[in-house]
Amino acid sequence: MTVHWVYVIECDDGSFYTGYTTDVQRRVREHDRGEGAKYTRGRTPVELVHTERFDSKSAAMSREYELKQLSRPEKERVVADE
Hints:
The chain is α+β, with helices and mostly antiparallel strands and about 80 residues long. The protein has three helices and three strands.
């Protein structure tokens, strides 16, 4: 059974990036090498600050969308609850 993850990384400039993956550590390494999302290129190094585990891709993708809609202060609260 595949595990699906939503993650939040903090970029070197202090901004947050939210994404979806099935392998969090691999994805963070990709972001750090500049091979991740276009947004994170040039904003390295990144630090993993939050993860959430899901049993289905659809649930993870819904949560990713939800997190991306949050304001900066709301994202900071999610990260602080980690």
